[in-house]
Structures are given as structure tokens and as C-alpha cells.
Write a structure and sequence with these properties.
Layout: H1 2-31, H2 42-45, H3 50-83, H4 85-89, H5 91-97, H6 104-115, H7 130-154, H8 158-166, H9 171-182, H10 184-200, H11 203-209, H12 216-224, H13 230-254
Helix pairs in contact: 1-13, 3-7, 3-10, 6-11, 7-10, 7-11, 8-9, 10-13, 12-13
Amino acid sequence: MNSMKKLFSVPFICFILCGTIVPMGVIAYYGLTDREGLFTLKNIMEIATVDHAKALGMSLLLSFLATTICLILAFPLGLILKDSKLGKKGFMVFLFILPMWMNFVLRTMAWQVLLEKNGILGGLGIINTPTAVVLGMVYDYLPFMVLPIYNALVKIDNSVIEAAYDLGADYKRVLFKIIVPLSVPGIVSGITMVFVPSLTTFAISNMLGGGKVNLIGNIIEQEFTASANWNLGSGLSLVMMIFIVISMALIEKFDRNGEGNMI
């Protein structure tokens, strides 16, 4: 049995090795060396320059706004799905998962068509602005906030809530003293799953920002493509990994039992 388990684990180990460990090692090598292959921290310290720091600040701001909006929309929706028959049957959850089956770029291009000057929503005048970028982030990543929150909410024992009502608690007290604390794992998981891709995105800002909204993801992408400066691009990528590590640490702290996982 143990030999069979080891055999079945080989494809996964190969996938992690080739798809995660090796690429991260390559990024670390390029990020910590110059074009001559000599060790340097210059690529990482470039994040402190005015242009890069400004792009990072804009990325953090827009990611924070998109994550906050997703949370404001997702938590009430999760409560509705939890108490509705449609939610229990999985129909509404299916509707939120459905857009994720469509290609990410196509979904973003759809908003580009709607928001452009001759589009249905062109009158809003928000195309090529940070507002359009945040709108694209919310649309693309909202399901990643809804699903873990919903998953955490459905695991709350209704008898606990009923007991609180029997003891005289009103809905507001039940919400903030019982439901919200017990759903923290899902909230933290959702925040991480929205904030991290929003922070590192470049496709959304390229299409909905029209090159006028420069995020740190755009700079990294340009360094790898237009400038062909893999060393600087890798150095900036290493800085972004710090935020990912922090996010993973938050999940480990608040969701040690995996209660906020989508599955």
C-alpha cells in the first residue's frame, strides 16, 4: 500500500518540481544577479525608485479597493445563499462559478467593449482609468471571495444561532458576535484569493487601463518582454513574493483547519 501511495505521488511531485520549485529557483537566480551573473541586490532595491514605488503604491491601493468591494458584496450574498433553498441546491453557487469557466482574457475584453467610447456603458467615461481597472478586478475575482465565505457560512451550526436567539440576542448581535467570528477563515481565505491576483495582475490594467494605469505587474511584464531585462523583472517579482508569503501566513494563522477552502 505504501509503495502504491509513493507511486501515485510521483506525478504530483514532478508537477511541483517542474511547475513551482524550478521556476522559483530561476527567478531567484536572475533576481539576485546582474547581466554578468554576479550577485547583487540592486534588482530588488529598484522597488524603492520613484516609478516602481509609485506603481507598487497604485497596485496596493487598487487591490485593496477591489478586495474591499468584493468583501462587501460577497458576505451578504453568502448569507443569502446560506439561508436560501437555491443556495442549498447549489444552483446559485453554480451561477457564480460559471463565469470562471470562460477565458479570463475574454471576460476582461467584454468589459473593454462595454466601457469603450462607443460601448453600452461608454457614457460613464471610466475606460482607461483606475476605476475601470478596479471594476475589472471585482468582476474577475468576486467568485473567489464568494465561494470560501459561503463555504465557511454553511458550516456554521444553525443550533448555535438558534440558541443565541433563545437567549435574547437580536440579529445584529448574532451577526457580529457569532456569524462573523465563525466565518473569519472564509473571509481571510477570500481576501487572500482576491488581493494576491489583484496585486500582481497586468492583463486587466493593460486592457481596461489602456496603458494609462501603470501597476507593478505591468512593469514586471514589460521588463520580461519589451525591455528583455529578466534580472530586474525577477528582482521585482521576488519583492511581490513577499506579499504572497505574508498572505499565506495569514491563512495559516486564521484558517489552520482549512475551513475557508472552496472545496
